[in-house]
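User: Here's a structure from my thesis project, written as structure tokens. My advisor, Dr. K., wants to see whether a designed sequence matches the one we expressed. Can you design one independently, without my sequence as a hint?
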């Protein structure tokens, strides 16, 4: 019966004090010594069983906690979260005041405080432990658990001032440390610590060691997972770069194919510029060898320089000012932008690559150290290296087109030049009209011969003349130091003026043009050429270099140099308004003008000769001034008027 009592106590998990009840009851009931001895023996056996059951229950709880911890750690993916969970669970399982973890630093060869739970000291949280220093350093060095019930009284490990100061500031007394191991390698130390004296049992050492084993695996898994994530991110980034590069290569190939197709289909520079802006965006201008726009958006040149302010404008006089953005400011901005682009173009040709200047990309191509063309792209966004290669390729294609155009122009220019040479030197040669028709020139229409004295720049002048001849269905030839053009038209003077102005602008210095004609047929070209030469010579002799004129514009000099001797045209240009006035009104202005010059400009003698009053002479001369202009008495003009009066009288 005595055994049943103790079994019942065990069954209801009674306290240790309750196991004394049956013994006390038997002693009070007068049980004999043998019975009491039997009860005492049964009580001791029951208490042993009770202690064993409690230890197993505790172990089961610990194992369950370890299992739960392993599950929790397996579910974590972030390394910081894994470390914090390990330290927090260690503090819970051992019921300590604090828990913390140090990790090995392979670069410095020591361990450093990584995570703490329950810590209050900043100095303690920033602690580093050299190998063998302090309890943690000893655990890391020997890969063996160590515990102390009273840290500062324990002499088994090497105390260091900085470590002891940090431990003292944190207030720790009892410390247990176990290694975090991956195989034979120690990666850190896991600690549980109390702020009062406390011996750690072997079971607690084993429990923290088991947690450390799980923790080491979780840490390694988290590290591997992070490395995998990093590798995936690197692969993703590499994949993005490969895709971007592939797209850039595909776009470059497409642009190249389109530009090649344009060349094969006979496209021009404008078409190439359109492809570039369509592929790369922004605005593009194409400059020739002299830096002048020949295609695209010429406004690109005006946008690069900063806007001129009023303070930058020079005053034109007292009290005057010029508003920013006026025409001089725009010219200055364009000039400044042109200089910037010219410098970038030189750098591009020297490097053989695209050069960035602000928000401009400049790609320039030269041939034989001479610039051929420059592409200027304005694109506010980022332009990749592949897109810069597209611009460089477009510059090469443009250069090829210009070279081809120049070659064709030179070949056609030779044909046209040889034909014009024959028309001038051998007008009786058979087949000249047919040869002219084959190059688009109809000699049966009116043409003007223009002779230009360019004063240098022989090749540029010849190329310009050839381009003009091709554009206007005419002929051009380089003859010695002059350029000769045969262009459609019937107004020699205006045509010569236009040619002189445009070629002067192209050369950058004065070019003088004389014109002869108009002529029809091959036989008249040589005579018109001689007349044009005389007009050009006359302009130079008169100090009018850089101008253009025909015989009619040269006044009486034109009568001397012109083959046609067109007296009527001369009279109309000099005296026409006066003659017409007399014809309409029945006046005698021509007679009065003749008498006035005949009397040496004397009003009184003129009035006597004409038998009219001096006031009448004055009134007539005022009218003549209104018709001919206020400068009619200037010596040079007066000479022409007197010559015209003489010719008018001789012609009846």
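Assistant: Designed independently from the structure alone:
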């Amino acid at each position: 019966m005595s055994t049943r009592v103790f079994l019942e106590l065990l069954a209801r998990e009674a306290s240790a004090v309750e196991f004394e009840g049956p013994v006390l009851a038997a002693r009070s009931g007068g049980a004999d010594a043998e019975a009491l001895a039997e009860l005492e023996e049964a009580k001791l056996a029951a208490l042993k069983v009770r202690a064993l059951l409690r230890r197993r229950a505790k172990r089961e709880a610990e194992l369950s906690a370890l299992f739960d911890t392993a599950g929790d750690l397996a579910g974590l993916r972030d390394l910081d979260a894994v470390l914090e969970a390990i330290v927090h669970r260690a503090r819970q399982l051992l019921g300590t005041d604090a828990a913390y973890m140090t990790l090995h630093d392979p670069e410095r060869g020591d361990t450093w405080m990584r995570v703490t739970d329950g810590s209050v000291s900043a100095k303690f949280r920033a602690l580093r432990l050299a190998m063998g220093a302090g309890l943690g350093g000893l655990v890391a060095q020997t890969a063996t658990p160590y515990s102390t019930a009273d840290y500062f009284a324990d002499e088994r490990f090497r105390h260091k001032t900085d470590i002891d100061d940090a431990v003292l500031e944190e207030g720790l007394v009892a410390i247990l440390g176990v290694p975090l191991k991956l195989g034979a390698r120690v990666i850190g130390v896991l600690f549980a610590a109390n702020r009062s004296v406390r011996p750690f049992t072997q079971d607690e050492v084993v429990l923290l060691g088991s947690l450390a084993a799980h923790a080491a695996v979780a840490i390694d898994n988290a590290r591997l997972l992070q490395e995998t994530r990093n590798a995936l991110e690197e692969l993703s980034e590499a994949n993005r770069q490969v895709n971007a590069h592939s797209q850039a290569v595909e776009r470059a190939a497409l642009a190249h194919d389109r530009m090649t197709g344009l060349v094969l289909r006979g496209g021009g520079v404008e078409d190439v510029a359109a492809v570039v802006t369509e592929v790369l965006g922004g605005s593009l201008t194409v400059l020739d060898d002299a830096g002048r726009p020949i295609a695209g958006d010429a406004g690109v040149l005006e946008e690069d320089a900063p806007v001129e302010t009023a303070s930058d404008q020079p005053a034109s006089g007292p009290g005057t000012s010029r508003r920013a953005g006026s025409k001089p400011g725009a010219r200055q901005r364009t000039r400044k932008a042109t200089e910037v682009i010219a410098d970038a173009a030189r750098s591009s040709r020297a490097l053989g690559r695209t050069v960035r200047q602000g928000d401009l990309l400049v790609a320039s191509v030269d041939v034989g150290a001479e610039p051929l063309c420059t592409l200027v792209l304005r694109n506010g966004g980022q332009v990749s290296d592949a897109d810069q290669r597209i611009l460089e390729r477009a510059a090469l294609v443009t250069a090829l087109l210009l070279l081809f155009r120049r070659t064709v122009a030179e070949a056609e220019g030779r044909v046209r030049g040889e034909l014009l040479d024959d028309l001038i030197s051998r007008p009786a040669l058979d087949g000249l009209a047919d040869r002219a028709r084959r190059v688009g020139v109809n000699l049966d229409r009116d043409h003007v011969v223009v002779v230009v004295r360019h004063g240098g720049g022989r090749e540029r002048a010849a190329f310009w003349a050839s381009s003009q001849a091709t554009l206007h269905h005419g002929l051009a030839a380089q003859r010695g130091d002059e350029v000769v053009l045969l262009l459609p038209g019937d107004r020699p003077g205006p045509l010569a003026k236009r040619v002189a102005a445009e070629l002067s602008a192209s050369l950058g210095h004065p070019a003088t043009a004389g014109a002869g004609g108009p002529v029809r047929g091959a036989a008249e070209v040589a005579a018109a050429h001689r007349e044009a030469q005389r007009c050009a010579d006359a302009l130079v002799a008169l100090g009018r270099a850089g101008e253009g004129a025909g015989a009619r514009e040269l006044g009486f000099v034109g009568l001397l140099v012109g083959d046609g001797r067109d007296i009527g045209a001369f009279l109309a240009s000099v005296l026409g308004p006066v003659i017409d006035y007399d014809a309409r009104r029945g006046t005698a202005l021509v007679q009065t003008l003749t008498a006035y010059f005949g009397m040496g400009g004397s009003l009184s003698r003129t009035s006597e000769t004409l038998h009219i009053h001096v006031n009448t002479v004055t009134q007539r001369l005022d009218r003549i001034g209104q018709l001919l202009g206020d400068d009619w008495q200037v010596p040079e003009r007066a000479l022409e008027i007197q010559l015209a009066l003489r010719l008018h009288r001789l012609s009846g």
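When you compare it with your expressed construct, this may help: Residues 304-327 have pLDDT under 50 and may be disordered.
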